[in-house]
Design goal:
single chain, about 260 residues, mainly alpha, two-stranded antiparallel sheet, 11 helices, extended
């Protein structure tokens, strides 16, 4: 008992206890966490073709093993097929030039090549797979609940209806008016660029589908009941009138009062 008490008072005991606690937490998480999906249905030929495409078009920035290059491009190990599909299908990757944010453009690869690239990257480590048709079907979603989820988690950057908005340091939240349901789901799942990751523990797959249903509803008649829809970016024109007419009238009144009193 004396030896045990002496060991508990040892100066390295807290460090050892911390290491044991970290190992225990990691083990519990590995057992209890939901498994991440990989493209396990891809054929060996698709994976081999994807590796060739990667070496020819992506390795110069991301490295030959997709390990990334500090200050140039991140590692792709463990990003999963969903991240590759989102970035490449929207034309964001490969980037034409270094910039604060990768803009959308015409995709460089066709659908089969994108699938092959995603299949190879998915073999590098477990990561989220692209959603199936049911997961992104807006007809199966609840647009009313999607509105609540979107305005709680997304509207501060993307605008209340998904029109997009400016961020800091030359970055921006893009408009979602032309994004496909699959792209919207993959963006929530993978958190591209400045966007946070909304995994299934943050926003459930059903809630993600509800968000898609809400955003699809916004693509109907954009003419507001009051006339001009203001581009769905808020009361910009009203604010302009406040400054031009309202402040202008106040300045004119101040000048007039000053002239009358002199």
């Amino acid at each position: 008992m004396t030896a045990l008490a002496r060991a508990r008072r040892h100066r390295l005991a807290p460090v050892l206890l911390m290491l044991l606690a970290l190992l225990a937490v990691g083990g519990i998480y590995a057992v209890a966490a939901p498994p991440t999906a990989v493209a396990d249905t891809a054929s060996a030929d698709d994976i081999a073709a994807g590796e060739k495409l990667f070496q020819a078009n992506c390795a110069s920035c991301h490295g030959p093993s997709a390990e990334g290059r500090p200050g140039v491009a991140p590692s792709l190990i463990g990003v999963g097929a969903a991240a590759v599909n989102f970035q490449v299908a929207t034309g964001r990757m490969p980037m034409a030039a270094q910039a604060p944010q990768a803009p959308t453009k015409t995709p460089q690869f066709d659908e089969q090549q994108i699938t092959q690239l995603a299949s190879w990257v998915a073999t590098l480590g477990p990561g989220p797979a692209s959603p199936d048709a049911d997961m992104v079907d807006p007809a199966q979603g609840d647009a009313a609940n999607g509105m609540l989820v979107f305005r709680t988690n997304c509207a501060m950057c993307h605008n209340a209806v998904g029109a997009g908005g400016a961020l800091s340091e030359g970055k921006y939240a893009p408009s979602l008016f032309s994004s496909t349901p699959t792209e919207i789901y993959e963006a929530m799942l993978t958190g591209p660029q400045s966007m946070p990751v909304f995994n299934d523990a943050n926003i459930t797959p059903e809630a993600k589908r509800d968000v898609i249903a809400y955003l699809m509803e916004q693509r109907g008649d954009q003419a507001g009941v009051g006339g001009a829809n203001l581009g769905a970016v808020g009361p910009v024109s009203e604010g302009l009138w406040v400054w031009v007419v309202g402040m202008g009238a106040l300045v004119a009144a101040a000048v007039w009062i000053g002239a009358k009193s002199s």
